[in-house]
Amino acid sequence: MNAATELDYTALAPSAFQHLLQLSTGLHKGPLGAKLVEWVSLRVSQINGCVFCLDMHSTMLRKAGESQRKLDTLAAWRESPLFDARERAALAWAETLNALGAAQVPHDALEQVREQFDQREVAELTFAVAAIRAWNVLNIGLRKPLPEA
What own/partner pairs with CB < 8 Å and gap ≥ 24 does 132-137 have? Predict the structure, then answer.
C-alpha cells in the first residue's frame, strides 16, 4: 500500500476527525479507565483486521504496563486466566456489539454485562465499541497504512 491509495481522512474531513478523536479521548478519561478501553479497542480491531489500530492499541497497552503474555492471549481471552471478570464482561459485550449486522444481540447479553458494570459504564463501554468500530472502518476502508516503526 502506498500514499497514492490512502485517503487522509484527517485532512479531508478534519471536523469529523476531531469529533471522533474527542470522543475517544473522553472515553479513555471516563469511568472505565484507559486500560479497559484499550483492551476493548484491541479486541475489536483484532476481529475487524485493522492493522493500524492493532499496532496502536497493543503499543498503548504495553506502555501502560500490560504483559506481552496477556496481549498474546487476547484472541483466546475466554480460555486465558489472565483476564479478570470485569475485562471478560467488557470483551464479551464488545464482541457482541461488533457482530451487529451479522447477528442480533442475545437477550441476556445486556444483563450479563450489567453484572460487572453500572448503567453509566455500560453506556460508556458501548460508546467505546462504537468509537473503535468507526476508527476501524476509517482505517481499513481508507487504507491507513501501518506507521513506520
Answer: 132/40, 132/41, 132/44, 132/45, 132/53, 133/44, 133/48, 133/97, 133/98, 134/20, 135/20, 135/24, 135/41, 135/45, 135/50, 135/53, 136/44, 136/45, 136/48, 136/50, 136/53
37-85, pLDDT tens digit by residue? 999 999 999 999 999 999 999 999 999 999 999 999 999 999 999 999 9
Q: How far apart are CA 45 and CA 81, in angstroms?
A: 22
Burial environment of residue 37 by CB neighbours within 10 A (0 to 12, 13 to 18, 19 or more): buried
CA 83 to chain centre: 16
Taking a C-beta distance cutoff of 8 angstroms, is the pair 109, 92 a contact?
yes
DSSP H or E segment with residue 51: helix 51-63
